[in-house]
TrEMBL record:
InterPro entries: AlgH-like (IPR003774). GO terms for cellular component: cytosol. Belongs to the UPF0301 (AlgH) family. The lineage of its organism: Bacteria, Pseudomonadati, Pseudomonadota, Alphaproteobacteria, Sphingomonadales. SUPFAM superfamilies: VC0467-like. This is UPF0301 protein COA17_10895.
Length: 187
C-alpha cells in the first residue's frame, strides 16, 4: 500500500522551539492537505473566557441543550470564523469527511443541531484555522518545527483533555519529550 505524502487526518505537533509563539505547544488536527495547500484546526488550547453559549448568543442561536463548552483557538487565520470538528454520526451542509476519522463542519447548521440536541454525539468548536499555501507545509515539514502523528485521532480529539493533547501526541508517536531540545541542529 502506497503511503500518502499528505497529512489529512493526522495531527501536527509543534516541536519545542518552533520559533513562532502563535504555535507554541500547538496540536493541529489536519483536515485537508493536498498539492493545493493545507488547512488544520488547532485543538491544543482554548480561548480564555469564551464558551459555546457566547458564540451561540452572538449568532442569535438559542443554546437549548448545548453545554457551555470551551471554544478552541483554531489558528491565527480568520479568527472570527468558526469550525466544528465532530464524530461521523452527523453530516450537514458542506460537511467534510476527514480521512474517515472525523468530520469538519463550518456552517451554522451544525451549531443549530448541537443546540437542539440533534447534532453529532462528539464535537468541539474552534475559532480560526491554520492554513498553508501550495507546497508551504511540505517545505515546513522538512525543517525543525512540526511532528506529524498518524494515530489516536478520536481519542486525541474527544477523550484527551485539552491541556494533555500536546504531550499525549508525542507519547502516541513514541517520543519522550524530556529528550527534545528547543534548538534545531546546525551544521
Amino acid at each position: 500500500m502506497k503511503q500518502s505524502i499528505f497529512l489529512t487526518g493526522q495531527f501536527l505537533l509543534a516541536m519545542p522551539g518552533i520559533g513562532d509563539a502563535r504555535f507554541d505547544r500547538s496540536v493541529i488536527a489536519m483536515c485537508s492537505h493536498d498539492e493545493r495547500g493545507a488547512l488544520g484546526i488547532g485543538v491544543g488550547s482554548t480561548i480564555n473566557g469564551l464558551g459555546l453559549h457566547d458564540v451561540l448568543q452572538q449568532l442569535e442561536i438559542a443554546p437549548g441543550v448545548a453545554p457551555d463548552a470551551s471554544v478552541h483557538f483554531g489558528g491565527p487565520v480568520e479568527t472570527r470564523r468558526g469550525f466544528v470538528l465532530h464524530s461521523a454520526d452527523w453530516g450537514g451542509q458542506d460537511t467534510l469527511d476527514v480521512a474517515g476519522k472525523w468530520r469538519l463542519s463550518g456552517t451554522l447548521d451544525v451549531l443549530r443541531a448541537i443546540a437542539a440536541g440533534a447534532g453529532p454525539s462528539r464535537w468541539l468548536v474552534a475559532l480560526g484555522y491554520a492554513g498553508w499555501g501550495a507546497g508551504q507545509l511540505d517545505a515546513e515539514m522538512t525543517r525543525h518545527g512540526w511532528l506529524n502523528v498518524e494515530d489516536g485521532a478520536e481519542d486525541m480529539l474527544f477523550d484527551t483533555p485539552v491541556t494533555d493533547r500536546w504531550a499525549r501526541g508525542f507519547a502516541v508517536a513514541g517520543v519522550d519529550l524530556r529528550l527534545l531540545s528547543v534548538e534545531a541542529g546546525h551544521s
